[in-house]
Amino acid sequence: MAVGTLALFYPVFMPASAAAIAYAGHRASLVDWPVVLREFLTGPGRTSRILLVFFLVLNWKSLPLAWTVRIFHAFAYHVLRRPKHLPPRSLFHYSITSSRTSLLETDYNLHKSNSTYFADLDVSRSHLVTHLLGPAMPTVAANAKNQLVRDKDGNLVSGSFGIGLGAVFCSFRKEISPLQGYEMWSRVLAWDRKWLYIVTHFVIKGKVRPTGWDGRKMGPTRVKVQKADGSGEVVEDWSKYVIATAISKYVFKLGRFTVHPAIVVGANGLLPERPAEGWTGGESGTGTPDEVIEGPEAGEGEWDWRAVERERRRGMEFAEHFAALDGTNDLFDGGEDSAIGRFPIG
User: Fold this and answer.
1) Mean pLDDT of 59-74
2) Burial of 20 (0-12, 13-18, 19+ CB in 10 A)
3) Phi/psi at 182 (nearest 5 deg)?
4) Where do the segments described as Disordered lie (predicted)?
5) Is 304 helix (H, G, I), strand (E, B) or coil?
6) What angle do CA 129, 76, 221 make, to 5 degrees?
7) CB atoms within 10 A of CB 346
8) How much is the pTM?
């Protein structure tokens, strides 16, 4: 998702898409579909046509413009289907998206090519961020009215709102076979003063169910099983179903100004009020680091600012290592000690 995409999506792409769909529907209504279908299935060359349709259906996600359709579908879907209010504990809950490996995504090792994971990540992150933070985006974008974002001198920031993808890391654990179904479980991992970190697990389809849903019922859930002696819940090793894990980082922008992620998250009502310097204060820009955050674990009792901050810090233990890789840019020396060669068809 590039900076500026969202600024164009609602006022430009949605009306244009609606007009295109309406026109296509009008033209389709003028076609004698029974005759067209009969000719397609029984006319000369029917075998080739049927095989071609079968091939296109199996590989639709790899066709031209399919990625754009998948991304824009995520935007539009959550405009129409998102619950009006999400509980604060939703901030670290998973967004689940299903997919299947197409034949055109399969490499010479006869499994899903590693490069194709990143297109799936685009779709999964778009679902998560649009669902979780969608209502906050126009609020932050209307900064002249809502006055949420100021620079270091206290001046209101202006400009179009957008989201930029800063980096992606992916660790591969198992292969995905051709036509195999899988799920992408994405959630907020943590944030610092600049980046919102998102973790995505590629999971074997049908093996894992959540214990509940934050909004309307969206599928089957998992029943918690108690030990025979009643001493506690039976905990399964869910990691055995993980195919790959990726971490991505997003930056929020108003024009060229970087918006603190906590401002966007807070604008959606997902951050409980925090004492002292709040969510953007302190030298770290993420609150006072020595604040006492002991208390009930996330999911136990009331979800307060301490539970959110504990989860954020837990995620930052991993995100900090990912962020440190930005320093590898300085390793590039421009071939100071020569290079191997320059090769064609890159």
Assistant:
1) 93
2) exposed
3) -155, 165
4) 275-304
5) coil
6) 60
7) 4
8) 0.88
